[in-house]
C-alpha cells in the first residue's frame, strides 16, 4: 500500500510540474468575467438533477443526481465470473446476476453463411464503444436533510455498441452447458426472431393415449371401432412388409417470434410463446403402416380388422429440393423416389410439403388421408446458458436499488426491482434461433388422435364400407380406406421446444489472441 501511495504521489508531482511548464510555455492570459461569458466550449464532466415527480411512494418519486462524462470510451474486456447480489435481500442460494466467462468486444464485421460471427482482424482487436457514460444516484426525499436517503445507484451510458457474450462454446447435441448466463435479473426485449426447426419422424397410434375411435357403417351392419393397442403391442402380428402404427413424417416448423419483453428477478430461462404456427398438411398412405382396430359389435364373425389410411400401394412423400432434370443419385434418392419427387413437383406440390402417389407412382391426392389446417401454439423454454450472444446497439444500464425504481430515460415498463438489475433499452437481435435437434412429437400425437376422433364423429368424417370392402374385412383381408381431408381448423396442438441446442448464430468466438478459449 505504501508503495502505491508513493508512486501516486510521484506521478502527481510530475503532472503538476508538467502542467506548470505547459501553462508557462503557452502564455495563457487571464480573462475577465465579461470575456469568460463570451467564450464557448464543452465541459468534460457534467452534472444533472431530475426532481421527484411528487407521487408519494411512487417508483419515480426520487431525486436523481447524475454525473456524466461527455465522451466516447472504447473497451475490450473479459470477466471470468460476474456474480452480483448473491444471497442478500433476494434470498440465499442464488445470485441476482451470475454469468461465467463473460466477454465484451466490438460488434462483428460480418457473419459466416452458417451464422458464426466474424471479425476482420479477430475479435480481440475490436472494442465496444460506450458513448457518454454516467453514474446516477436515486435519492428518496432529496429536499429533506432529515429524511433523505440513497435508494439506488446505476451505471449507464447514452449509447452502448458491442457484443456481450457469456460461455466458452455453443454445445451440441447430447452435451451439457454449465457456464454462460446462469441467473439474470433485469429487463430485455427479444427482437423479431426467425425460428427454423423440424419435427421428429414418429410412429402414431400404438399407445393408449393415441387411440382413435370411430363409427363404421357397412351394408352388413354397423359398429363402433377403436385402436386395439394391446393387439398392436404383442397380441397380433402386422401384415408382412409393414408395421403396426402409422408413420408421421418429419415436418418443417418455421415461424417468427414477435418482439417479446422479458423481465424479472433471478431468471434462468427464456419463456417465449407464439400462437397459431401453421404445420404443413400431413399425408398418410398405406405404405406408412397399419392400425389394428377392434370392433365393439362384430360384423358377421369379425372382431378385429387391419386398417390402412390409404389406397393399396399408395405412398406419401415430402418433396425435396431436387431439380427435375437432376439424376436420382445426385439428390440422394432412389429411382422410384425421384419419380415420386418429379411427379409431385410437376403437380405443383411445393418443396418441403407432402403429397401422395398411387401404386402407379402417379400423383393421386385422393389415395391418402390428410391432416390439414393443423396449427400449433409453440412454447420455447430455453435456458439462458444456451443463449450466448447478446448484441447491444442501444442504451443500457446496471443498477443496484433497495426498492423498485423507474430510472430516467428507461422504457416505460422497465421498473428496476430490488437488488441488482441489468437492462437493455432496445430489442436485442439474436439473429436466429435454429434448433440443431429434431422436435419430439410425442406430446403432440395424443392431441392429433383426439382431433382425428373428433373429426370422425362428424357427418363429414363418417366411414362407410361397401359390401365388397366389408366382405374382405370379414375374411381377414386388410382394409384400405383413405379418409380424405381431416380438417382440424381452430383446434391447435401445443408444441414445446425446450432446451434445444442452437446453431452457429449462438456460436461463441474467443475474445483472446491465439488458440485460448478464454483469457
TrEMBL record:
Signal peptide: 1-21
The protein, known as: Uncharacterized protein
Source organism (scientific name): Acinetobacter sedimenti
Keyword list, A-Z: Signal
Domain of life (superkingdom): Bacteria
